[in-house]
Design a protein that fits this description.
Layout lengths: L6 E5 L12 H13 L4 E3 L12 H15 L6 E3 L5 H14 L3 E5 L8 H14 L4 E5 L1 H4 L5 H10 L3 E6 L6 H9 L4 E4 L5 H6 L4 E4 L6 H12 L3 H17 L7 H9 L16 H13 L4
Parallel strand pairs: 1-2, 1-8, 3-4, 4-5, 5-6, 6-7, 7-8
Helix pairs in contact: 1-2, 2-3, 3-4, 4-6, 6-7, 9-10, 10-12, 11-12
């Protein structure tokens, strides 16, 4: 059986207007463009969408706006994580009620739960909300790293815990996870630059930052992999690499929002404590975009 989520997926930016408010029209236009360019799933209200600085009302509204555009065209995987279990549960309940196809739930950050604490966090959400849940394991931001053993325990105990967004940058992890949990447990990379190796190690797709500004090229990469067209895959992989590098030259989503502005798809505005990227970073982003024939 083919897993329910595969291929090129975009961790959506959240465009802001001149007053710093969510630009609803620009966001919906951006989602529509993503789908037209071949993106296979869209993820609102993740880290790339500046979820830490969205109010609860804004968070819910962005999810709803995304569903209005994408429902029936591509899966919507709503970011609903928090370091508060109650808050994560509430956000996940909203995502289900709004019509999201799945929830992306990050491992609790800052308060550093143990493996048992992480298990209990996801257990509470999975028992309360009947929606497919994807674990988001990102030790670089959350400090904690969910082990393969804990992930396996959750997947065995709860049918609606269906996969992981793996941002460990450990390329032994997808193979270890595949062997431990089986090929149907969905593995999505959270590291654009290593997607080729991740797919080769048993992964199913990528929740991408780069696909915000190169959706068609990212989609072509995954299509080529699926059809075993290695020549096209290598060409897309190599063309994307400078863009991956440039989009993480400063804290995300600063660089990718600047790149989206170059395309006329958003503004560069981010919310404090994130600030506009430096002039040297802007030049690096522009050069990478030109090298990849994106501008």
């Amino acid at each position: 059986m083919t897993p329910m989520f595969t291929g090129s997926m975009t961790a959506l930016i959240t465009p802001m207007d001149q007053d710093g408010a969510v630009d609803e029209a620009a966001f919906q236009s951006f989602v529509d463009w993503q789908l037209q360019e071949g993106t296979q799933a869209v993820i609102p209200t993740g880290t790339t969408g500046e979820s830490p600085t969205l109010s609860h009302a804004e968070h819910c509204r962005v999810v709803e706006l995304c569903i209005e555009v994408a429902k029936g065209k591509a899966p919507v995987i709503a970011g609903t994580g928090s370091n508060s279990t109650r808050e994560a549960l509430w956000l996940t309940e909203h995502a289900k009620t709004a019509g999201a196809d799945a929830a992306l739930v990050v491992t609790p950050y800052y308060n550093k739960p143990t493996q048992e604490g992480m298990y209990q966090h996801y257990k509470a959400i999975a028992e309360a909300v009947d929606i497919p849940i994807i674990i988001y394991n990102i030790p670089g931001r959350s400090i904690v790293d969910m082990s393969v053993e804990t992930m396996g325990r959750l997947a065995r105990d709860f049918d609606n815990i269906v996969g992981v967004k793996d941002a460990t940058n450990d390329l032994t992890r997808p193979l270890k996870t595949r062997i431990a949990l089986g090929p149907q447990f969905i593995q999505l990379s959270g590291e654009d630059a290593t997607i080729g190796a991740f797919l080769g190690q048993g992964g199913h797709g990528c929740i991408s930052v780069t696909s915000n500004v190169a959706p068609n090229l990212c989609a072509r990469l995954h299509k080529a992999w699926g059809s075993n067209d290695m020549e096209s895959f290598v060409a897309a992989r190599d063309k994307l690499m400078p863009v991956h590098d440039a989009l993480f030259c400063e804290s995300s989503p600063g660089p990718v929002k600047y790149a989206a502005e170059l395309l006329g798809k958003s503004t560069r505005r981010t919310r404090l404590p994130l600030t506009e990227i430096a002039d040297a970073s802007k030049k690096r982003v522009e050069q990478a975009m030109k090298q990849a024939d994106l501008i």
